[in-house]
Amino acid sequence: MYTPVSTRSASAYKRVAVDTGVQSADPHQLVGMLYDGLLQSLHLARGAMARQDVAAKGAALIKAIRILEEGLKAGLNPAEGGELAQNLRALYDYSVKRLTEANLRNDDAAVAEIVALIEPLAQSWKDIRAQVVKGA
Fold first, then answer.
1. How far apart are CA 61 and CA 103, in angstroms?
2. Residue range 83-112: average pLDDT?
3. Domain 7-135 in CATH 3.40.50.11810
């Protein structure tokens, strides 16, 4: 579903500046870090909206969109991931569209919708860690 860790993946991750520890992280951990960074950015955007801080809202949503586009979506491997990778790509595209609309319209409900879609994925990704480590 996701490509193995590579220069391209690590480079994309660094560009979106989610966290540290990229060099020592395995591919599963990298995706987990991207999900964590995405959710953190979405929560920051919602807080900024509540405070009516337009600049902070925009920065947080732009970061979230970059994580989706340059991290999660760019790391998908349709050849190995098949239908699941295609479905994730469609979800990430939809999320980018909704977050762009949320930024333009200051729409907290749209951001909340994406949080509700991404949180279960992020949790599931964490839950399969033991299987990934065992299978390695």
1. 7
2. 98
3. no
